[in-house]
Amino acid sequence: MDKILVGLKRVVDYNVRVRVKSDGSGVETDGVKMSINPFDEIALEEALRIKESGGANEVIVVSIGTSEAQQQLRTGLAMGADRAILIATDDAPDVLSCARALLEIVNRETPDLVIVGKQAIDDDNAQTGQMLAALWGRPQATCASNIELDGDKAIVTREIDIGTEKIEVDLPAVVTADLRLNEPRYVKLPDIMKAKKKPLDEIAFAELGVDSGPQIAHSSYEPPEGRAKGVMVDNVQDLVTALKDRGLL
Amino acid sequence: MSRILVIAEHDGSTLNASIAKTVACAAQIENAEIDILVLADTAAPIAAEAASLASVSRVLTIESAANAHSLAALLAPQIVAAAQNYTHVFGPSTTFGKDLMPRVAALLGVNQISDIMSVAGSHEFKRPIYAGNVVVTLRAPADAIVVATVRTASYKAVETGNSAPIESITVDADLPTHTRFVEAQAGSSDRPDLQTATSVVAGGRALGSIDNFDLIYSLADKLGAGVGASRAAVDAGYVANELQVGQTGKIIAPDLYIAVGISGAIQHVTGIKDAGTIVAINKDEEAPIFEIADIGLAGDLFTIVPELTEAL
Q1: In this complex, is the C-beta atom of A246 within 8 Å of any C-beta atom belonging to chain B?
Q2: What domain range is B267 assigned to?
Q3: pTM
């Protein structure tokens, strides 16, 4: 195939314990470490492996966000992507608007395969890949743990509740990456230097002419209800007694 | 009045347990009429189960060989056609619903709400974000159809005993041929299903090997419990992916959850925090799992677990 397009979302790093702003208007992101959404990193790794094994000519990374998302795109370029596109916006477009914006890029670039993470670890929506596939009128293979390319088709193994499932999709298609698709590589210093010279194009979100459609309002943010602190027991016998007291044995 | 269409998940012959919980969520919306849509090759046995669920007004069936396997690309256009007179379309937040519902929403030209955990009104819902660290309240526009998935661990299944009418319907939808089912491989287990089990025993990385995971199986079998695992244990290859509990695995709410050798990363805790009683067994007294456990026992799991299994 010729091109693989990979979506990268800038999110609060996996190891950060997020806090709700005191006025409930959102989540504190000032001074917080940001990273590529881990599932998107897996998506990119898969695209790079396909290219490196001769299965594709070019890997393009795309992100939607503020100019700060350039950092994550540069990391993607350092991992090995050939070029990057930032769909720049200071707003936080909803998922449908993002899928519509990605469709505009897909129409311009005509990739043979789009790979994105199965979910972003900030909003945990798990929707973008499916929405893009729907709008594009193309197949979707979500929660992929293996991708086998076969000419103009792909056989994708999906992680599902009962185990795994294989489906065959005609290309072009959208695949969403699950945890066990691969283990992403570490970026090496010389690659970071090289990535600075790779092309990173910026397109204003507003220029894409996306109809933002009916909006869902986010009215308030709050911490979850905590669980009360329990008791520590000293030995197995006390544990069994405690379980019996609760009527669980 | 709200008219809610619930999309039935099934395995070709039986209704998935998540649907009774999805209906329970829908029933929280005041003045709602709830229908279930069964898309299947042979719908009758599934429809009969759906019709028995309390709060259900009607069961609609679309029978077609194309619906033999739940492929989102084929189901979505049929659901869009069937959903025209509804105010809401709900599915469970299982791998089935998560795959399907965003595709339905995009075809309907609306956003989708993932993982409803509570209903504040016909168009106002709460859902968890950031691995359950934050709860956000969302208000969907009143003039557009609401498409959502339901976090089933937040709801108790509705009762059975109803006998709602079952109607076969046909829809006008173009079904793509670009997506084909090849095969499914179900994890082989005669233990209770992780998502519906009343008790679950789960193991973490501290088990150290596939063989040592037998300790978990023995304890689970003694309790008649399902078996789960942390992401670390799945990544290490001790157990299959479908046993993973947490943000990116299954969200469960058993009456009893016993976490063995699991440190309690926030991504894991989000999958169990609706459990009735959480028991933690871990050698590290400082492990975060003890902050949310109802009963904690610090010590060596390789001594404690066999002793506990013996004592039951």
Answers
A1: yes
A2: 199-311
A3: 0.95
